[in-house]
Write a structure and sequence with these properties.
Blueprint (H helix, E strand, L loop, with lengths): L1 E6 L8 E7 L2 E5 L4 H12 L2 E2 L2 E7 L5 E6 L3 E2 L3 H9 L2 E3 L7 E3 L9 E3 L7
Parallel strand pairs: 5-8
Antiparallel strand pairs: 1-2, 2-3, 4-7, 5-6, 6-10, 9-10
């Protein structure tokens, strides 16, 4: 039997949640809403994350534009996603919501700009 203690991030309450796993049987306790149980199951079976970072901008009024993954990605792919983001340059202008990388690191997830950057 494996026991994991988590803090739920499904809502602002931040409930301490305990997940007990025995084979295929998963029990979640401590959550005060259904989102807590859903979060805990997902976190122990297939954890995912939204990644935020920045990409270099050529000829922009600022040198970098903030970006994020459009959807969550498998936690195991974070370093590959960050490597691709780190090696990417885009030309100004950039508009908020613009897709800057398609299918980042083979995840099927786009990297989008979270602000606009004008050209110098």
């Amino acid at each position: 039997m494996e026991v994991r203690n988590l803090i739920c991030i499904g809502c602002p309450l931040g409930c301490p949640v305990t997940v007990t796993m025995e084979g295929e049987d998963i029990q979640v306790t401590g959550n005060t809403c259904p989102r807590g149980a859903d979060y805990a199951r997902k976190e122990v079976l297939s954890p995912t994350r939204i990644v935020t970072s920045s990409i270099r901008v050529n000829d922009g009024v600022i040198a970098r534009v903030s970006v994020k993954t459009k959807n969550d990605i498998p936690k195991s792919k974070i370093f590959e996603v960050m490597d691709e983001i780190r090696n990417t340059r885009v030309d100004a202008p950039v508009t908020m919501g613009q897709v800057l990388i398609n299918d980042c690191a083979g995840t099927g997830v786009e990297i989008i700009a979270t602000k606009s950057v004008e050209r110098v």
